[in-house]
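Hi Y.,

Following your request, here is the sequence exactly as I used it, all 171 residues.
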Amino acid sequence: RAQRDLERARAAGDEAAATDAQTRSNRATEALGEQAADAWVRAAHPDADRVHAGRGPGTFDRVYENPPHRRPPQYIIVEGKGGTASNSSSRIGADDQRHQQGTTGYRDSVARQMVSSPSSDAASRSVGERLRDADPGSIDYVEVSQPLAADGALSPIQARRYSDRPPDTSE
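Below is the corresponding structure, written out as tokens. Let me know if you'd prefer a different format.
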């Protein structure tokens, strides 16, 4: 609905309504991606505990930790994408290079940001420290998406591992 409202507002030249509709569309897409992330982890890593839920820049959408008897991986970082959302985020790393979401440089930069940001709470700082200090081989970094069919119905959740990991299968 928000997408339809956005298109109508733009066609009518109503920028205030278009901005409001875009904000609602973005929130709905984020929520859909977060729900898909949680559903995928429950299926793929049923014993994992969610140790972090974030929204916005400087954090991960979700971080889960597997119990010792289910490792590896110890940590599962999930970036949730809903609807037509795409991987468009990048950031400057400690090496002064731009890193695309899903790369090791991006992951490390976000973990450092979670530790050092004055807006991070103690729990977020703790998760950031554990990720920063973890063996990279103990972390799965995954994009989970919940696409929509042309009629607006939910399509199957899809997951793929980022970086140097082989592609994952769709569920």
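The radius of gyration is 17 Å.

Thanks again,
Q.
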